[in-house]
Amino acid sequence: MKSSLLRFSVALFVLICTVLLCWHCANAPGPDPPPANIPVAVQPVPLSPRIQAVLDDYHRFFSQEMALTQTPGAAVVIVLDSQVVFMQGYGKRIVGRPDSVDIHTVFRIGSLSKGFAGVLTGRLVQDRVFAWEDPVQRFFPGFTLRDHAQAKRIRLWHLLSHTTGLPYHAFTNLIEEGYDTPRIISEYFPKAPICGVEGTFFSYQNVAFCAIEEVMKNATGKKYQELLMEKIFLPAGMTTASCDFQTMQTCGNKACPHFRISNTAWDADTISPLYYNSAAAGGVNASIADMGEWLKVLLGNKPEVVSNATLDKVFTPVVKTGNERRIMPRWIDRDAASYAMGWRVLQHENDTIIYHGGYVNGFRGEIALNRRDKVGICVLFNASSDLSKTCVKAFFDRWSSR
Q: Among 261, 284, 308, 301, which residue's Cα sits nearest to residue 356?
């Protein structure tokens, strides 16, 4: 009897202790949340005090400028060598609503898409699908110009370097009217004057640039969007990146574009289907986490996606862009800017900056990298904010003075 009573007492004691322990765990305070708007080092990367000081100072600058410019929302990623060392969302996905921009919020990236087209072309050259020097007409017989002889001479690299000889932004207006690339090229390119010799005359394009989509489709039997997903997005780990209107529409965590209604106020707009019909020129959707993985590719840290030799070719300047508006005035001289394959190449003092900016449907984007220092930055905005004009310069000024 005494033994049974003792066993019962021990069991009761254990039960009471278990209940009390569970109650304590359930009601114990959790870890303190990280302070708002503190720079996020996504991986535990040991950084030198000087580099950490650069990141902290840039974060302070960006936070202050977000407030001064009343920018609705933005996201920043900085990659050093193979590591994301800074990644942060700022502001709101939609003004006046509670949802904040985070690292997985998807933006339209506009002409930053051109860099993907250049690298994807390089990857297909690497895979021996075609060669840089192949005539466009070999894979896209419908490609034509007013000067038929010049049309025959156009190579793949002419498309990606904006050196076909066509006038500035030839027939971009027809993209906005919903025309597809083959129709614009077959019906309207023969009507456009030839303004220069191929390979030597720079004139920024969207339609001619997108002829590379037709080349890829006819060479592989796959649509451009499929190839981009298969060759770049998936192997690079860009899990929320896409290249179509429907995916952006149905995305739950996306930023909406904004337009200015006064000097200090913005209003939200809707996602437009425009320019998804020119995917290579402006159709990519991505989060800042995706763009961090993309920067790793561009800095040569994912050779399974694309080799460094291919990146060397893609980033090699083809033509000076001195006849174009200045890129980053008061920082880059007009004669210090060139264009490569979907990328601008900027000379700043002793540095070479690989760069592109983008605008579409109220979104803005900026991406830049210094391959020598193995550092890159991307900034995405859901409004055409004045901060987009200074964010790259502000980072590299701090980086060079570290």
A: 284
SS3 per residue for the chain: CHHHHHHHHHHHHHHHHHHHHHHHHHHCCCCCCCCCCCCCCCCCCCCCHHHHHHHHHHHHHHHHHHHHCCCCEEEEEEEECCEEEEEEEEEECCCCCCCECCCCCEEECHHHHHHHHHHHHHHHHHCCCCCCCCEHHHHCCCCCCCCHHHHHHCEHHHHHCCCCCCCCCCCHHHHHCCCCHHHHHHHHHHHCCCCCCCCCCCCCCCHHHHHHHHHHHHHHCCCHHHHHHHHHHHHHCCCCCECCHHHHHHCCCECCCEEECCCCCEEECCCCCCCHHHHHHHCCEEEHHHHHHHHHHHCCCCCCCCCHHHHHHHCCCCEECCCCCCCCCCCCCHHHEEECCCCEEEEECCEEEEEEEEEECCEEEEEEEECCCCEEEEEEECCCCHHHHCHHHHHHHHHHCC
**pLDDT 10s digits, 112-125:** 999 999 999 999 99
28-83 pLDDT per residue, tens: 333 333 333 444 545 556 899 999 999 999 999 999 999 999 999 999 999 999 99
What domains sit in the chain, N to C, each tagged with a CATH number?
49-112+229-400 (3.40.710.10), 124-220 (1.20.58)
**Average pLDDT, rounded, for the chain:** 90
